[in-house]
Design brief:
CATH class of the largest domain: Mainly Alpha
Number of helices: 4
Helix content: 55-70%
């Protein structure tokens, strides 16, 4: 048996814990179920969705790139700082 340690926003952890508890699960069991499904599906067991702000931001970046107005970065750190 292995150990998995993750860092997650405290608010998300609390909200997820409440939701899972209502389903009769603890977080560890839910994560185990999720990982088993990842293996069985050979990928995520759901289709990730993005909120409208994320979709709009991605669209704006793609339009800027198509127009040649996109910014180039020398390092990943520089790109992340611009987010």
């Amino acid at each position: 048996m292995g150990t998995l340690n993750i860092r997650i926003d405290k608010n998300i952890k609390t909200r997820a814990g409440k939701t899972l508890s209502a389903l009769g699960l603890d977080t560890s069991t839910a994560v185990r179920i999720f990982l088993h499904q990842v293996v069985a599906e050979k990928g995520l067991p759901f289709t990730p969705t993005r909120n409208s702000a994320t979709i709009r931001m991605q669209w704006d970046k793609e339009v800027a790139m198509a127009k040649g107005n996109s910014r180039r970065y020398k390092t990943a750190r520089e790109a992340l700082a611009d987010l």
